Amino acid sequence: MAIATPALAQTAPAISVDTLRSVTKELSSDAYEGRAPTTPAEEKTVAYIVARMKAAGLQPGNRGAWTQDVPMVQITAHDVAPFVFTGGKTPVSLAYRTQMVAGTYRVVPRIAVKDSPVVFVGYGITAPEKGWDDYAGVDVRGKTVVILINDPDWQTMTRDGPFEGRAMTWYGRWPYKYENAAKHGAAAAIIVHDTEPAAYPFAVVQSSWTGPQLELDEKGDHMDQSQVIGWIQKPDAEALFASAGKDFAALSEAAKRKGFKAVPLGVNFATSFTNSVRRQASKNVIGVLPGTTNPNDYVMYSAHWDHLGHCTPVNGDGICNGALDNASGVAGLVALAEAQAKAGPAKRSIAFLAVTAEESGLLGSRYYAEHPVYPLAHTVGGVNMDVLNVNGRARDFVITGAGKSEIEDLVKPIVAAEGRTISPEPDPERGGYYRSDHFSFAKLGVPMLDGGSGEDLVVGGKAAGHAANEDYVAHRYHKPQDEYDARWDWSGAVADLDIYYTLGRKLADDTGLWPNWYKSAEFRGVRDASRAGAR
Prior knowledge:
Blueprint (H helix, E strand, L loop, with lengths): L1 E2 L11 E2 H11 L12 H17 L2 E2 L6 E12 L4 E4 L5 E3 L5 E4 L6 E11 L5 E2 L4 E2 L10 E5 L25 H10 L4 E6 L1 H4 L3 H8 L3 E4 L11 E6 H10 L4 H7 L8 E27 L4 E11 L4 E6 L2 E4 L2 H21 L4 E8 L7 H8 L8 E7 L10 E4 L7 H11 L3 E3 L14 H6 L4 E2 L1 E3 L7 H15 L15 H19 L14 H11 L1
Helix pairs in contact: 1-8, 2-8, 8-13, 10-13
């Protein structure tokens, strides 16, 4: 069974709905145990993806092999002591899982922080180009920093502001905040969870941050990182500040303005836990359709195969199956491989990359970008897929992180040919551009499209689309309820995949195309240097 989009039916082989259904259903079944990397389920997952790529007509993508080893270290925290804050009006003790989560990047058997002075550093941002430094004038070496999630201007409903207003920037993302705290020598870095600016409920933090945690296995064992990284809930942060004689709301408001000065709270922090450490390689899967005249230039399609594995049970179900996130994206990857192979080789090579450990911080794509099978200077661009639309056809198409690259100029006429319009991101405060694998490529100069159906559904309009997206985030995202549903309407996914197919084919057949970043984009310089070296 296949559905073809009318506007593109003459040029694109039909995307197979049977493939979308079968791959999604298979990978999200309980037999794959939620596809956690470096678990026994990984071998089964990788074998299935390789079999589907091979059946689609691809060739092994890594010098005769189907996989790329990604060295991982798994750290599992045990006996996590409460977060205890002393020295205030009353002691504050926060329980693991229910009120806080804790972990570490350091590869050590035990973590212990004691009598560490606590400092509120606002949004924890150091951005010289914006004249902004929340760490100015304060020495946090050996101290514990408390940080707000998102950017200072996240409540601005427009895109105006020092940090792009409502749209979250890289400075608003939690990985940046921990990274910057470590650069300043903080012993512990604690982010305050608030559902709206975080863009997900605390249940997502609980499922993602408890149990085994993965990081790339690199020289130095990450000893340059803070000893403790974690989250606390906003009501508990308010109680902590009150104990310290401070007003959380007032200080949070002050942190929105340039020139904010970090505030010592006059309390000390302590926690401890032990770690079990396991080193094991995970795998990226890569297949290729070699080009005819320019085989050393590559167009890339990517999607992550991993999910959370066993997680916090809901109604007795403790497997986070990840049907939409991201078995559906892998299904799209396989369906595109089938279509591109059926159309025959393009002038440039087309690569299909299923990466590991996206849910652990984009680790698989980061490793590939830093150790590419195909030189990034010869990677033209491409498409990343993370959660396909199963709500039905949409009238509109949304480009995540719009305003960054010339890929957008190429996709807009393809969208128009479908009779669809481009809409702005409905929830730019969620920072979607920095939360999936295209970002690993972007940081090293390669522009990748991250875009898909908007909320204006053909059946039900914007209200139905918005309700469906909100329902997914609230009730299924990173929870055991993200399971395959035979009732899903795949027509919207097919319409998007037709766009991805046509964009990829254009990039692969027009050998004069080398899409760059707009001059205002933060990734322009690295792309220019990369391409200059290639020439």
